[in-house]
């Protein structure tokens, strides 16, 4: 089924051609440029169908069997299915699938475990902590007393000695592990030990690696963390949204922290789409996909290093790479603009120990398109040529168009 076909057949084209053109324009952009934004992916037509279903009309405050609205028979079944699939997929005792986003899930985890003013230890923002990990621009930095740990200046790896020293000195109520830009596996057993040593809760914000965990391509935080927060998009390839996993002992606190404490009515179309995505992620094909995502990221990281970019930590264990393009004579912000003109879409990001900004790349979307290591080698070389100014961006734009034509995200 082609998404274009769905849209063209849809009443939207007749009723609101202006908006239909915008949607088709975005589909065209996604289909003819390379999406290397580490947080993005292409959901399946089945996930898109659930998102566009009549469940979008339904109000459903509360939880299955205990709603504040009538008529919840079908959405109750959908939510129970999503919860059971999430529990089975990740081996968790309890799942809450109502969080509207990754940030909402983190907010709910804090609400379940903390009180305003509590001390929390998390990866500092310059090293890849998320806004919800203590940014002064975010509720987290205003309501809690965040202490930031960092990464080793030489290796770029999380400085475990510093984590322990800070934990002993500050005795936080919670320790957060998880990042927007850390390319290596997180040692959850280490964080569990430190949390136990200082009597803290351990919150794993596994928004990025959770899809790899589902496919068996990354270690799971579930056996170690008191609460795991995640997004259902990114590598997991579901709709934009969040979820929380925890043990049975914290189930009620987590559920009440989501509703009624931080959210109102659940978005049932998104929850149905989450159920579809969890079902897809439980298949052998998804495990193959998750391992290929990592193989592609490793090939891309090696290619970028061979071209002279400085790859943080020297490589990756995941879908995500951060790299400094400075040796090619350009900083991350300028690099992002030049690459966008060539049809290569990615983010720039803070680098652990640089004054300039670097690049953040991910392989979840291109792997969904079916690309492999061969294409990643081409991509690294092409990206470097664009940054060196050795090739016209218009020429690369055509090559990207040809490549995406061979690997369409939504085949006709
Ligand atoms: C580690 C981490 N936590 C939280 C979030 C927030 O997710 P959302 O944008 O869905 O609120 C992200 C998003 O990239 C993330 O990487």
Automatic annotation (TrEMBL):
InterPro entries: PyrdxlP-dep_Trfase (IPR015424), PyrdxlP-dep_Trfase_major (IPR015421), PyrdxlP-dep_Trfase_small (IPR015422), Ser_HO-MeTrfase (IPR001085), Ser_HO-MeTrfase-like (IPR049943), SHMT-like_dom (IPR039429). Pathway: Amino-acid biosynthesis; glycine biosynthesis; glycine from L-serine: step 1/1; One-carbon metabolism; tetrahydrofolate interconversion. It catalyses: (6R)-5,10-methylene-5,6,7,8-tetrahydrofolate + glycine + H2O = (6S)-5,6,7,8-tetrahydrofolate + L-serine. Its cofactor is pyridoxal 5'-phosphate. Keywords: Amino-acid biosynthesis, Cytoplasm, One-carbon metabolism, Pyridoxal phosphate, Transferase. It is found in: Cytoplasm. SUPFAM superfamilies: PLP-dependent transferases. The modification N6-(pyridoxal phosphate)lysine is found at residue 234. Transmembrane segments: none annotated. The record marks 233 as: Plays an important role in substrate specificity. It holds the Pfam family SHMT. (6S)-5,6,7,8-tetrahydrofolate binds at residues 125, 129-131. Residues 13-380 form the Serine hydroxymethyltransferase-like domain. GO terms for molecular function: glycine hydroxymethyltransferase activity. Its EC number is 2.1.2.1. Homodimer. Catalyzes the reversible interconversion of serine and glycine with tetrahydrofolate (THF) serving as the one-carbon carrier. This reaction serves as the major source of one-carbon groups required for the biosynthesis of purines, thymidylate, methionine, and other important biomolecules. Also exhibits THF-independent aldolase activity toward beta-hydroxyamino acids, producing glycine and aldehydes, via a retro-aldol mechanism. Belongs to the SHMT family. PANTHER family: SERINE HYDROXYMETHYLTRANSFERASE, SERINE HYDROXYMETHYLTRANSFERASE 1. This is Serine hydroxymethyltransferase. The gene is glyA.
């Amino acid at each position: 089924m082609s998404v274009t076909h769905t849209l063209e057949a849809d009443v939207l084209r007749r009723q609101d051609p202006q908006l239909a053109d915008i949607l088709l324009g975005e589909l065209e952009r996604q289909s003819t440029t390379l999406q290397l934004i580490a947080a993005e992916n292409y959901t399946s037509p089945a996930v898109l169908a659930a998102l566009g279903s009549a469940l979008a009309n339904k109000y459903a405050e509360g939880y299955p069997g205990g709603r504040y609205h009538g008529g919840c028979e079908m959405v109750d079944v959908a939510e129970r299915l999503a919860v059971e699939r999430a529990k089975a997929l990740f081996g968790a005792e309890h799942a809450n699938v109502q969080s509207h986003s990754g940030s909402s899930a983190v907010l709910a985890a804090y609400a379940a475990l903390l009180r305003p003013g509590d001390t929390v230890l998390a990866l500092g923002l310059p090293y890849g902590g998320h806004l919800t990990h203590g940014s002064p621009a975010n509720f987290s930095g205003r309501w809690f007393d965040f202490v930031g740990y960092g990464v080793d200046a030489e290796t770029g790896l999380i400085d475990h000695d510093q984590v322990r020293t800070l934990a002993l000195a500050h005795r936080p109520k919670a320790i957060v592990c998880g990042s927007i830009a850390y390319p290596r596996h997180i040692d959850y057993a280490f964080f569990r030990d430190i949390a136990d040593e200082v009597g803290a809760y351990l919150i794993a914000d596994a928004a990025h690696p959770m899809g790899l965990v589902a496919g068996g391509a990354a270690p799971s935080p579930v056996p170690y963390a008191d609460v795991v927060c995640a997004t259902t998009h990114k590598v997991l390839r579901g709709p934009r949204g969040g979820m929380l996993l925890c043990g049975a002992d914290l189930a009620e606190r987590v559920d009440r922290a989501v509703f009624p404490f931080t959210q109102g009515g659940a978005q049932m179309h998104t929850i149905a789409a989450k159920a579809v995505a969890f079902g897809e992620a439980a298949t052998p094909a998804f495990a193959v996909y998750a391992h290929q995502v990592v193989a592609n990221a490793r090939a891309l990281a090696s290619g970028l290093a061979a071209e002279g970019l400085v790859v943080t930590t020297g490589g990756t264990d995941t879908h995500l790479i951060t790299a400094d393009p400075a040796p090619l004579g350009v900083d991350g912000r300028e690099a992002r603009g030049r690459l966008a003109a060539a049809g290569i879409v990615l983010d720039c990001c803070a680098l652990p120990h640089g004054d300039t900004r670097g690049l953040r790349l991910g392989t979840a979307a291109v792997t969904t398109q079916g690309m492999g290591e061969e294409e990643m080698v081409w991509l690294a070389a092409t990206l470097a040529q664009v940054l060196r100014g050795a090739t016209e961006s218009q020429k690369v734009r055509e090559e990207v168009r040809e490549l995406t034509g061979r690997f369409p995200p939504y085949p006709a």
